[in-house]
């Protein structure tokens, strides 16, 4: 009936998601190319950062409450899958510079997984965090378990071992029918503070939340279901709110569909969906605009979603994404262009693809 993949927040949130990996979020105790062109707002953001050295205040990203966890996360989150080289090689120098810049511009939420690049993303992010030296209490990390390079494994033994392996790679000493009890034990042991679930099929969330005690799941992470081409998540928001669950949305660029360069070859979208997104990107270019920026700003407008995760692997991408968010808060989105792009994408609205392992 759906797919399930666990999720964990280092610092501490754990989730189970559709046929994908268990997501572990590790908060502190106390797939995608983005905005390839540097816009005027990006230059302003860079200028503001430079001014900070001269004593000027640098505008910070909005922080939003993550459900009932007590965590406040930046409205733009740092998706670290690109650090696993899933979209192409990324040097350690570029990765470190991107993470450092993210902190400078107010990003405090980072998402990774042992599946991204076969543990490379976790390892690289861990090295970057240690090198930057920001106090652990000042950021939240989300990772996953359940899906690995060798396949899916939701057994209690593998989930428990996966959390310890992720902690070691990330250089952390805590993280946020068989899988949930295993995570609950980790929570009772103090290794996990919050529990969450993640997956592509939205039915996974209701399936799990209707079958576990109230409060057993703190957070859900949905991806590719809240952007210009797919807003299916909206219908689920009232239900999630009634369950007291925090909401994170990832991949506002639909894993590369809403970019000038287009998606990677392995993207599972249909030819029809790829063609429509390509047309939308072309329309934006003709107007001198960027479809990625428009998609990110569209996703950020909904305050019921705590954070929008965007894949980043360079200082330029970090600055462009933050600049887009700051511009949205000061001058809003280009409504005319948005309506035109929505019209182009209407024939494929909410079209998705299979993902994960069959739920039993």
UniProtKB/TrEMBL annotation:
One of its GO terms (cellular component) is cytosol. GO terms for molecular function: L-galactose dehydrogenase activity. GO terms for biological process: L-ascorbic acid biosynthetic process. Residues 76-332 form the NADP-dependent oxidoreductase domain. This is NADP-dependent oxidoreductase domain-containing protein. It comes from Colocasia esculenta (Wild taro).
